[in-house]
Amino acid sequence: MTLPLENLRVLDMTRALTGPYCTQMLGDMGADIIKVEQPHVGDNSRAWGPPFVGGESTYFLSINRNKRSITLDLRHPDCAEIMRAMVAQSDIVIENFVPGHMQKYGFDYEACTAIKPDIIYCSISGFGQTGPDHGRAAYDQVIQGLGGIMSVTGHADGDPMRVGIALSDLMSGMNAAYAILAAVIHRMRTGIGQYIDTSLLSGQLAMMSYHAAGYLATGHVPQRTGNHNPEIAPYGVYQAKDGWFNLAVGTNVLWQRFLEALGASALADDPRFVSNHERSLHYREMNAELNQIFMQYTVRELQDKLIPAGVPIGEIHDMASVFADPQVKALDEVVTIAHPTVGDIRVVGAPYRLTETPATVRHHPPLLGEQTDEILAEIGFDAARIAAFHASGVLG
Q1: Helices marked H in the chain — which ranges?
Q2: Which CATH class is domain 9-207+332-392?
Q3: pTM strictly above 0.90
């Protein structure tokens, strides 16, 4: 089977989460990912934990499959020779240093195009390459605050709340992968590479979607509403007699089905609840009525009534119950990877299926510098030169 990206070589100068998530996406579809890591230290995420298994961070293991690792001291005088050879034989360079660092190392976009004119070069940063804050360092939670998502997350009378995953990092990695593939298609048509600038902040702004559009159109600043959706009702978290569940009744047709399934058709004639607009205005009164009904049932009983009626409902899982769920098992998303020191590890695989070119797991998340000599040989260095590099300390 020929994978769609298998003829592309990616020089991966990223670390932590957003860049490695991007390059893992490309690697899953066949790209050859050469991961450049700092000697003796490696990617920041190698140290992030607990949990660790077999001395390896599960954080690192989750976002670094289908890559090969080379250690390289970017500040060493011999580094430039190796980097030039790698750039010359790469299709894509991806970096997520603070703006200015790659120029300091001598391998910014202009320097790389001098080596390989059709290179596709992607920079992922916290704030972008221009503007008063372009030189600031950033992590996901800082951007969640600056980009507005924490202002609409959490209960109305509570503290600002971060989203429970590194959403800004992950979305920026996806944005970078999307832009890179668009640039690859452009190069296939024209033979011309290009520079890509994306940032956590720009990705966070894009994610604000309807919140941002509402503010830009009206000047109204959205507020935190907890698990309540101010535009759709009923839509949120509710409690049955044995636990919590999510309910989403997005249309008037669903509202009618919902009431019929619960045997609560009398509420259909209540003028406070006749439309989504009215229900949104009177959601407290509506929820008081619904809560009395919900507390008569278990979550399973409610699901048994509402799912056949086409009403979106679902219990709230923790990770253990997520992976015990029959539907999750049916999706077959958990991939087992054989690792040389950890043994078999299980991770979540690619979230899409292609009939002709499905994403594959071909390489375990690499040990630090595991393929250093292999990569050096591939890009043209003989055994004597590789030994000299080891002796010089550029490889660690």
Answers
A1: 18-28, 58-62, 79-88, 101-105, 109-115, 140-146, 167-190, 200-207, 209-218, 252-262, 276-281, 283-294, 299-306, 319-324, 326-331, 372-378, 383-392
A2: alpha beta
A3: yes
